[in-house]
């Protein structure tokens, strides 16, 4: 599935929920499903700066594609980073860098996706793109 | 009828709907909401009076200057200062403490001298001192906090000496609402040192009657935006003779008497500390905020805060799973730090937001205090004049349902 298709898929799911509370609940469930992150990878160099809670994003390259493993000590942030990581995982670095989808525009996710530059989701996306850029150069 | 019954009507923000709920604003410790009188006053200045202060020889400038300077007199009466010249306008508490730290260290301190702070200080009352301590080779000592969140005044006594040049202490804890006994601190400082005593009044001044002469302290600093005023304006009150002896930290227009190519002389207090165009519209807006508080009466404001605090203690202290950081003294601020084992403060505040409840999550700029308590982050509820018992009830029910969802 392309990044666009994955974003559309998540948009469809998130649109089902009538309010922020139920959307957050969905993210909490996503967070609880993501139990594969090894605690020894909770390292400072994998930390995403600019989040209210601690968020980790670990890249892995397999068959010329990038995969992201993610974690957070807060549930809603973990749900969000899990969702974002799954959108950009299993993709070529070039496709991640050239993709211009603005998640803040696409998803209605209350204050956690407000288009502020010092916002956690913005930092998560920036981190993913930086990892991808490093692979290309 | 209570002056506080329909008070929300004076604050247009409470007409807002937040996520389909009415707004339950419990983050006044971060910033207060503004009444119409403050907003209207600032709009009126921009619309009909705007001209730079202290410069023009024309009607508009004269009117604005008069309004700006009259705010000093309002604060003289609000704080019972001996003179209106003892009121210096700054950007806020942070700038005020940076100014005092630099000016005092430069004038009165030398290598090996001590600064005494406490373990519960806001970063704004730590970092400026750390910066000057490094520059002038000074030491910082921290007064211990007791398990009940009060300050260990025996520890303060033991730390005071002839080397102590500054004691700078919070007037009300921004996490536990604890109110240190400022008079007792002042007595101890006078008896055991020749230090200057600074009180960080950011949380205290909005909520309680403060009489600077009665307290006997040397300096009081606070912010306008936490006491119904606009952002970008705050106050340093200082004893006139001390202000006279201090040198300015910022140079520029309006703070001078005479300027030559090789030297300059300073204007008298207070203007020597107010370089450049001051935030005069903000200061005038803050003057309207002082009028609003004076109309209510600070003793009534205190009474309202005490009633809400007692109600908060009754309602918030026994919620299953919620740990509360709150002063155990009889009198304290209406501030409750809270955390739930296994639940992140950021999650909790996001869930509370879905109920229209606005609280702050994080370390509230008291990171060392959190570290001392062994907690990463808390949520904090701070109430002000426009809050009522219903807001505390809403917080409680939102907390219970949020915790249930997050566990």
Largest sheet of chain A: 2 strands, antiparallel
Oligomer: heterodimer
- The CATH topology of the largest domain in chain B: Aspartate Aminotransferase, domain 2
CATH-derived architecture of chain A:
Alpha-Beta Complex
Record field, number of beta strands of chain A: 2
Morphology call of chain B: globular
* SS class of chain A: mainly alpha
CATH T-level fold name of chain A: Sufe protein. Chain: A
In CATH, the architecture of the largest domain in chain B is: 3-Layer(aba) Sandwich
Instruction: Give the mean pLDDT of chain A.
Output: 89
Radius of gyration of chain B: 22 Å
* Arithmetic mean pLDDT of chain B: 96
Q: Quick one: CATH class of chain A?
A: Alpha Beta
Q: Count the DSSP helices of chain B.
A: 13
The low-confidence runs of chain B, each spanning 5 or more residues with pLDDT under 50, are: none
Beta-strand segment tally of chain B: 17
* Percentage beta strand of chain A: 5-15%
Q: Overview of this structure, please?
A:
The complex is a heterodimer of chains A (137) and B (407). By secondary structure, chain A is mainly alpha-helical. Chain A has a single domain, classed as Sufe protein. Chain: A. Helix content of chain A is 50%, strand content 12%. Chain A has a two-stranded antiparallel sheet. In chain A, strand 1 (55-62) and strand 2 (65-72) form a beta hairpin. In chain A, helix 1 (3-16) runs antiparallel to helix 3 (75-88) and helix 2 (20-33) packs across helix 3. The longest helix of chain A is centred in the C-terminal third of the chain and has 17 residues, at 120-136. The mean pLDDT of chain B is 96. Chain B contains 13 helices and 17 strands. A seven-stranded mixed sheet of chain B has the order 4-10-9-8-7-5-6, with helices on both faces. Chain B has two domains: 7-30 and 297-406, Alpha-Beta Complex (Aspartate Aminotransferase, domain 1); 40-295, Type I PLP-dependent aspartate aminotransferase-like (Major domain) (Aspartate Aminotransferase, domain 2, 3-Layer(aba) Sandwich). In chain B, helix 4 (127-136) links the parallel strand 5 and strand 6. In chain B, helix 3 runs parallel beside helix 4 (127-136) and helix 11 crosses helix 13 (389-406). The longest helix of chain B has 21 residues, at 59-79. Chain B has helices at 36-49, 59-79, 93-108, 127-136, 153-159, 182-192, 212-215, 240-245, 280-296, 298-316, 345-353, 367-373, 389-406; strands at residues 17-18, 21-22, 24-25, 87-90, 114-118, 139-143, 164-170, 196-200, 219-223, 234-238, 256-259, 264-266, 322-325, 335-340, 357-358, 360-362, 378-382. Chain B is globular and about 70 Å long. Chain B is an alpha/beta fold. Chain A binds chain B through residues 19-21, 24-25, 28, 52-53, 73-77, 110-112, and chain B through 19-20, 344, 346-347, 350-351, 353-354, 361-362, 376, 405-406.
């Amino acid at each position: 599935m392309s990044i666009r298709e994955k974003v559309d898929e998540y948009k469809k799911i998130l649109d089902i929920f009538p309010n922020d509370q139920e959307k957050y609940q969905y993210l909490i469930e996503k967070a609880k499903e993501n139990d594969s992150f090894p605690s020894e990878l909770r390292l400072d160099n994998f930390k995403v700066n600019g989040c209210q809670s601690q968020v980790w994003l670990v890249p892995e390259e397999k068959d010329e594609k990038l995969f992201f493993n993610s974690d957070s000590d807060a549930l809603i942030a973990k749900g969000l980073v899990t969702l974002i990581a799954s959108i950009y995982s299993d993709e070529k670095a070039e496709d991640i860098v050239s993709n211009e989808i603005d998640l803040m525009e696409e998803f209605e996710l209350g204050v956690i996706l407000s288009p502020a530059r010092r916002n956690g989701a913005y930092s998560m996306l920036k981190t993913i793109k930086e990892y991808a850029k490093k692979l290309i150069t | 009828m209570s002056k506080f019954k329909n008070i929300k009507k004076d604050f247009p923000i409470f007409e807002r709907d937040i996520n389909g709920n009415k707004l339950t604003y419990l983050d006044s410790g971060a910033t207060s909401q503004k009444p119409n009188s403050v907003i209207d006053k600032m709009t009126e200045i921009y619309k009909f009076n705007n001209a730079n202060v202290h410069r023009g020889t024309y009607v508009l400038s004269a009117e604005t200057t008069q309004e700006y300077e009259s705010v000093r007199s309002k604060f003289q009466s609000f704080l019972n200062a001996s003179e209106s010249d003892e009121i210096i306008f700054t950007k806020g508490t942070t700038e005020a403490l940076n100014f005092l730290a630099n000016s005092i260290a430069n004038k009165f301190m030398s290598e090996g001298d001590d600064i005494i702070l406490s373990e519960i200080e806001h970063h704004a009352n730590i970092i400026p001192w750390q910066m000057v301590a490094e520059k002038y080779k000074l030491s910082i000592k921290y007064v211990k906090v007791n398990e009940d969140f009060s300050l260990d005044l025996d520890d303060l006594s033991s730390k005071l000496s002839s080397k102590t040049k500054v004691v700078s202490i919070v007037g009300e804890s921004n996490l536990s609402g604890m109110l240190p006994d400022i008079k007792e601190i002042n007595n101890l400082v006078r008896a055991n040192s020749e230090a200057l005593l600074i009180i960080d009044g950011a949380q205290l001044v909005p909520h309680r009657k403060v009489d600077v002469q009665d307290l006997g302290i040397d300096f009081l600093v606070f912010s306008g935006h936490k006491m119904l005023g606009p952002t970008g304006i705050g106050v340093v009150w200082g004893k006139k003779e001390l202000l006279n002896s201090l040198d300015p930290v910022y140079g520029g227009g309006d703070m001078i008497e005479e300027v030559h190519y090789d030297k300059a002389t300073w204007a008298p207090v207070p203007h020597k500390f107010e370089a450049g165009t001051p935030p005069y519209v903000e200061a005038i807006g803050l003057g309207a905020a002082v009028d609003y508080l004076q109309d209510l009466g600070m003793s009534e404001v205190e009474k309202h805060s005490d009633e809400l605090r007692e109600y908060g203690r009754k309602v918030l202290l026994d919620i299953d799973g919620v740990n509360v950081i709150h002063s155990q003294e009889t009198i304290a601020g209406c501030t409750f730090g809270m955390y739930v084992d296994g639940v992140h403060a950021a999650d909790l505040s996001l869930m509370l937001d879905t109920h229209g409840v606005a609280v702050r999550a994080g370390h509230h700029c008291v990171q060392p205090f959190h570290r001392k308590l062994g907690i990463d982050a808390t949520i904090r509820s701070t109430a002000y004049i426009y809050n009522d018992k219903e807001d505390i009830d809403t917080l409680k029910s939102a907390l219970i349902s949020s915790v249930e969802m997050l566990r």
